[in-house]
């Protein structure tokens, strides 16, 4: 198959355990962009949290794309054009903040520059801000402060508690939100119908390519739908078992240049 697009999760996939892109992986991804293959980052991270990775891969030079917020926002790195933008109504952020407080877990959302915490800051909220290299601002009156539509909210807490809450909130907000975990301790609260696969369905016609020409690579719960959707769905060796089960191919781990192996085997050949 002549693949035209490779879609990459960041954490646990593109970057290694030190949150770095290795020279071999970077070289392979630059080379295919020079050959006209599209490269897109698809991450649960907010848009500001993808900037460093986008710069390292020179996505702006090649006119390539970032799909941030699990695909809730799609941006052309060269022009800054927002190709797609799906949001949660402003009033929903306040409702979800009350849910978090009642259940004793953390909650945060994002503006154009910062992460906004609606509860007492926990270790997982701090981790999210650190991963994305953005400021975490604790907001006292979350409902009043967040008076604008947001691409997602993120609940945080101990993995066992998050698993229980995922089931409960999925049922409660089935008609209005898409809810899933990206990590055992992160519960993503997204606009209805938005995940990485659904966004790709709308994005591919914009590029003029078909799903069989797409490789999607990931390791986490939120990568499962796009791996199932892709012409070639790739799970990392370090991926969760549920992700490996739906993959067409399992590559090496993120600490063993697994993405470089995929590019060299299926695109550069």
Question: Would you mind describing this structure in some detail?
Answer:
The chain is built from 10 helices and 14 strands. It is globular. α1 (23-34) runs parallel beside α10 (258-268). The protein has 2 domains: 5-86 and 194-268, HAD superfamily/HAD-like (Rossmann fold); 90-191, 2-Layer Sandwich (Hypothetical Protein, Haloacid Dehalogenase-like Hydrolase, Chain: A, domain 2), CATH 3.30.1240.10. The protein starts with a strand and ends with a helix. The model has no long low-confidence stretch (mean pLDDT 95). Strands 5-4-3-2-1-12-13-14 form an 8-stranded mixed β-sheet. It has 269 residues and is α/β, with parallel strands linked by helices.
SSE topology sketch:
Blueprint: E1 5-8, H1 23-34, E2 38-42, H2 51-56, E3 65-68, E4 73-76, E5 82-85, H3 90-103, E6 106-110, E7 115-117, H4 123-132, E8 136-138, H5 142-145, E9 153-156, H6 159-172, E10 177-183, E11 186-191, H7 196-207, E12 214-218, H8 224-229, E13 232-235, H9 241-246, E14 249-250, H10 258-268
Parallel strand pairs: 1-2, 1-12, 2-3, 7-8, 12-13, 13-14
Antiparallel strand pairs: 3-4, 4-5, 6-7, 6-9, 9-11, 10-11
Helix pairs in contact: 1-10
